[in-house]
Amino acid sequence: PSGRKFMICIELHREDPKEILQTVFDCMEKACEKLKQQKINLGLLKAIGISNQRETTIIWDKTTGEPLYNAILWLDVRTQSTVEQLIKKIPGKNKNYLQEKTGLPLSTYFSAVKLRWILDNVPGVKVAVKEGRALFGTVDTWLIWCLTGGQNNGVHCTDVTNASRTMLFNINTLEWDPELCEFFEVPMSVLPEVKSSSEIYGKVKLGSLADVPISGCLGDQNSALVGQMCFSPGQSKNTYGTGCFLLCNTGKKPIISKHGLLTTVAYQMGKKEPVFYALEGSVAIGGLLIRWLRDNLRIISTASEIEKFAASVGSSYGCYFVPAFSGLYAPYWDASARGIICGITQFTNRNHIAFAALEAVCFQSRELLDAMNEDSGIKMSTLKVDGGMTNSNVLMQLQADILSIPVVKPSLIETSSLGAAMAAGAAEGIGVWNLHPDNLAVFRWQQFEPQIQPIGQIQ
Ligand SMILES: Nc1ncnc2c1ncn2[C@@H]1O[C@H](COP(=O)(O)OP(=O)(O)O)[C@@H](O)[C@H]1O
Ligand SMILES: O=P(O)(O)OC[C@H](O)CO
């Protein structure tokens, strides 16, 4: 009203799909190079598994192979107004309106909202859809399509775990849902075929791995659940990467959360195998907070330095950090929330902020665990962990203290990759191994015991 102009800065997270492809391709070539240096015959490579960032949305032209827009990453919040528009058409403006079918609340997080935004805002996409040239996919779909030939009969598919994060997939019928597509006004013609997480999708057409089948595909958090061998209902893990994702295997029936968790497909290890479901607590900002301290505040120069600063004070002395950079995910689902550092005094220095940042990751995970306990009615007795942030022993000890249960870290923390490899090797027609409980790998573990007692238990 005063006539002044305001600039609104929002968190945009995008990537060039071709760069993603090139990076994956380079990584495959370098890995092959190393194997050759070690005199390992590439012919021994039987299959490839893909573990990918979920929800990230890509749309491309199948006749040229060119992306029609940048990939919109899962934590990008440009779609906030799209969400608001969609909520307006829901009776009672209930953001859980689609929960029975999708297991998810309406949020900027999921692919359908990002795709709607692209259709509304990117010139040329609607025409490409109308002319039958546009294909949609999450990162797995894009990679499989490109690696299996692209314009020359590339396979356009995804797996059930990735499909279950789009909001267009019915997690009960395990099919794309016409009503959901109608709600988001997304044409079904752009959607990939949905397959299990462990079957041969196609063969690589180029490079050193030409002719090797791609036979495993899971969203990264789901493949970490597999890599942590959580095959029985009740088993769970928390992955500390860019965000934090606590998944609990709930068995063969989807359980709808009453405490802000997501219901998602956990995995399906073969066409004829049953689908397992999981309850999931997702926190948008985990390791990204450490990167923010490094790149934006510049109070650390490497991620691992945070431990040293945090350990030097052993407490934040009343300083708290809420890293709601992309809104708050589980259990709040509030896209409009933003970050805050509070409780700052004259005495506060970077060490206290470093400690508060680590605590923030742990407190967010505590909220997920509390919601999980409420939903399941069973108190979790230990927490299995993995992901890049678990390199920090200070963080792991803090997590055990804040949860009041032991935190258990496997010797191999790249469980997302392991899960995809397990799926690929177990696929029908590959048969390098099977996933029978007796045949699963056994890891060494490091256990962090709680060293403080909750106030109620102090004698
Ligand atoms: N020693 C450490 N202490 C704290 N955070 C760390 C440490 N090492 C890595 N990280 C964080 O872990 C994240 C990377 O973990 P990773 O599992 O590779 O994530 P993603 O799969 O999401 O890329 C980065 O955000 C980084 O800040
Ligand atoms: O590897 P991350 O932490 O970016 O994981 C991304 C998740 O799949 C988002 O749902």
From TrEMBL:
**Which domain of life does this protein belong to?**
Eukaryota
Q: Top EC class per UniProt? A: transferase
Catalytic activity as recorded in UniProt:
glycerol + ATP = sn-glycerol 3-phosphate + ADP + H(+)
Q: What is its EC number?
A: 2.7.1.30
Q: Where is the Carbohydrate kinase FGGY C-terminal domain?
A: 238-427
> What's any GO biological process attached to this entry?
glycerol-3-phosphate biosynthetic process
Alphabetically sorted, this entry's keywords are: ATP-binding, Glycerol metabolism, Kinase, Nucleotide-binding, Transferase
One Pfam family it belongs to: FGGY_N
What is this protein's name? Probable glycerol kinase
Give the UniProt family note.
Belongs to the FGGY kinase family.
A single GO molecular-function term is: ATP binding
Q: Which GO terms describe its cellular component?
A: mitochondrion
Biochemical pathway: Polyol metabolism; glycerol degradation via glycerol kinase pathway; sn-glycerol 3-phosphate from glycerol: step 1/1
Q: Where is the Carbohydrate kinase FGGY N-terminal domain?
A: 12-227
